[in-house]
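Design a sequence for this backbone.
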């Protein structure tokens, strides 16, 4: 009997289990009820022998079921570990690729022309907005004394008015600022496509240098702070 196929009765037992609406409790009651009614399982042996056989079979199959469950869980853990390793590897490759990308990206002639055109249009709109703002001022403060106006003019003498980005528009470059960052735009008027290797952008603790290799720098000086 030990060499017999352990699954040969699975079809009948499965059909029986499916008809037991009370679940496993009803299924076991049917099995033991059959043994009590149709066999001498409970009474044909020595005292306690039936219970010993039941517990022996129970523990054997309990161990087998636990081993199978542990094996399935182990396979799941291996697959999850492999999945996490693939995710970590892909993330590391993406970070490496990002770190290797040039900080100054190459642009085409068309893109450079578009940027310069946008800057010019922005300057025009800012100038127009400033004119409207100056024209819409109320007469409040117009009654200030001539002495105060002269003092204000003297204090603002030789100062450049800030642009709409709280920065400054200078002949060769312009910059804007927020509380978190400063944006500096330097257009280059050259007749060849600029590549990242052509650009000189040196930022030191209190010095800034920007330009093109082989050309005089557009910016080369100490910073205010």
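Sequence:
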């Amino acid at each position: 009997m030990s060499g017999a196929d352990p699954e040969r009765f699975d079809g009948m037992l499965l059909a029986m289990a499916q008809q037991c609406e009370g679940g496993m409790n009803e299924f076991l009651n049917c099995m033991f009820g059959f043994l009590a009614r149709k066999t001498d399982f409970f009474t044909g042996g020595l005292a306690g022998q039936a219970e010993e056989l039941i517990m022996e079979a129970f523990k054997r199959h309990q161990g087998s079921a636990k081993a199978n469950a542990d094996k399935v869980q182990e396979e799941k853990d291996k697959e999850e570990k492999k999945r996490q390793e693939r995710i970590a590897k892909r993330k590391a490759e993406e970070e490496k690729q990002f770190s290797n990308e040039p900080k100054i990206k190459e642009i085409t002639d068309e893109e450079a022309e578009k940027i310069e055109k946008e800057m010019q249009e922005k300057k025009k709109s800012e100038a127009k907005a400033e004119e409207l703002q100056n024209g819409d001022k109320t007469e409040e403060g117009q009654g200030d004394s001539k002495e105060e106006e002269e003092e204000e003019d003297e204090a603002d003498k030789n100062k450049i008015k800030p642009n709409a980005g709280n920065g400054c528009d200078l002949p060769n470059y312009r910059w804007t600022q927020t509380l978190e960052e400063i944006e500096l735009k330097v257009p280059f008027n050259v007749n060849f496509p600029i590549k990242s290797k052509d650009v000189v952008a040196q930022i030191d603790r209190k010095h800034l240098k920007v330009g093109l290799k082989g050309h005089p720098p557009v910016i080369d000086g100490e910073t205010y702070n």
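The helical segments are 10-19, 24-38, 49-100, 109-135, 146-155.
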